Amino acid sequence: MATLTVWRFSRPDGADRAAQILAKLAGDKLIAVHDAAMVSWPEGSKRPSTRQLHHITGASALSGAFWGMLIGLIFFVPLLGAAVGAGLGVLTGVMTDVGISDDLIRRVRQKVVPGTSALFILSSDAVLDRIRNSFEHDKPELMYTNLSVAEENRLRELFAEEPG
Is residue 89 part of a domain? Predict the structure, then answer.
């Protein structure tokens, strides 16, 4: 069973520091990172910057389309307003089909604002106590959803990285 976690940090550089810690934890086999992406939103910026973290996962499990869709749904669709209302229902439906609830999307949208950052991680086999201790200094807020085997399979079916 996979888990999609969002670690929210109170500083724009918090997720970048956390990505370095996550890479070490993955190297030590304390977590299996299937894919990861980062959002940083400096104070004064109109929108956050995003990037997929290939250096942690090696070969990504998911295509950039998944992260683009999820991050777009969270951060950019609200800015577009009613013009994309019908498309919003389709996007939300796709995310619900793969185990990502409207509630999680809404919570991330409310919490990741200018002056903050977030690390999005699709993972499994985490040694939770060791991971929690590794991030203790930064005091991140954790938001997550556990994906059923069927939801994880659907996620991979829809968004698997194409072999290059």
Answer: yes
At 12, is the secondary structure helix, strand, or coil?
A: coil
The strand pair at 32-41 and 49-52 is best described as antiparallel
Report the predicted TM-score, pTM, of the whole model to 2 decimal places: 0.83
Residue 138 in any domain: the answer is: yes
Helix/strand/coil for 158? helix
Q: What single-letter amino acid sits at 5?
A: T
Number of domains in the chain: 1
Residues 159 and 134: their CA atoms lie apart, in Å, by 30
Q: Where are the alpha helices (DSSP H) in the chain?
A: 14-27, 54-57, 64-71, 77-80, 85-97, 102-111, 128-135, 149-159
Query: What digits encode the pLDDT tens for the residues 92-110?
Result: 566 666 678 888 888 998 9
